[in-house]
User: Which sequence fits this backbone?
């Protein structure tokens, strides 16, 4: 008996040790990537449903491993958030976004760019000042930038968040509320947050044609958004049936594998769907 439980305890301890080791390894991997500037952005086109043109792109961060392998954010963002490295990632993403906006301007590409900031962004004073200063610079068109925040980011300290958002919006930049619908009090906070876009969470969109409840929800979000002067974006649009449904609900924008997967190259605003 006692032997068995001892070995059980031992293996649990070993497991915890292994987990800790992996976490430390990942932390070192992220630190090295930050130091070597091995973070990059991939871009996923966003379709303006009414004009059938690509109007926006979402920037999604990737880490390039020493062997060239591309590491997806779900593998390193959670560890970065736990270890405090997320502040540096947010800053790196912002710098890359500024470079991208400058590049778009030199190409006369009217594409708007959205970026993701972490839940820690509103407490990161260096990030906020870099953001405000950067957006005021001549060579960046602040109106082309959309900052995606989740409800959790904004609601943790709602008064601070609202003040910062209003401050940043004075430069012309816009905000989007990401992952809308999976939070705990979505409509309540929507009234208070100075956002310009609502991104309906992909879990409502992916199976839209099959679930009546999702259809009712998406339609309601569309109607409320229209009343409030907000633009709606549906993510995870994976087939034409879903895109047609969204169009019938007057959703403004669509993003997902049916339109395009994220890629290293920036889209131009040519027509891409010919249905
Ligand atoms: P998110 O902001 O909700 O981004 C959407 C994710 O869904 C992306 O994954 C995208 O590639 C994927 N996706 C797009 N279309 C479809 C589709 O039709 N079907 C399905 N099944 N998936 C689709 P990715 O790039 O792996 O990003 C995952 C998450 O990592 C993001 O979720 C976001 O929370 C976080 N993230 C990405 N980039 C950044 C960043 O620069 N900074 C921070 N802090 N977080 C980021
Ligand atoms: Ca996003
Ligand atoms: Ca999302
Ligand atoms: Ca998500």
Assistant:
């Amino acid at each position: 008996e006692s032997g068995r439980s001892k070995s059980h305890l031992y293996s649990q301890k070993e497991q915890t040790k292994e987990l800790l080791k992996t976490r430390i390894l990942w932390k070192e991997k992220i630190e090295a990537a930050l130091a070597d500037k091995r973070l990059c952005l991939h871009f996923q086109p966003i379709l303006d449903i009414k004009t059938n043109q690509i109007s926006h792109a979402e920037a999604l961060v990737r880490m390039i491993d020493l062997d060239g392998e591309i590491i997806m954010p779900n593998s390193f963002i959670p560890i970065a958030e736990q270890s405090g490295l997320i502040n540096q990632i947010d800053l790196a993403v912002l710098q890359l976004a500024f470079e991208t906006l400058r590049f778009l301007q030199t190409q006369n590409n009217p594409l708007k760019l959205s970026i993701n900031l972490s839940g820690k962004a509103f407490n990161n004073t260096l990030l906020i000042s870099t953001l405000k200063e950067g957006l005021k610079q001549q060579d960046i068109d602040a109106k082309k930038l959309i900052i995606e925040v989740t409800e959790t980011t904004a609601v943790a300290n709602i008064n601070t968040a609202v003040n910062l958002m209003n401050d940043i919006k004075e430069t012309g930049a816009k905000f989007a509320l990401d992952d809308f619908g999976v939070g705990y009090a979505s409509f309540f906070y929507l009234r208070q947050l100075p956002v310009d876009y609502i991104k309906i969470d992909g879990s409502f969109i992916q199976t839209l044609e099959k679930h009546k409840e999702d259809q009712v929800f998406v339609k309601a979000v569309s109607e409320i958004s229209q009343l409030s002067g907000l633009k709606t974006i549906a993510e995870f649009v994976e087939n034409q049936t879903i895109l047609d449904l969204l169009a019938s609900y007057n959703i403004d924008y669509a993003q997902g594998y049916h339109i395009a997967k994220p890629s290293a190259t920036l889209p131009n605003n040519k027509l891409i769907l010919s249905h």
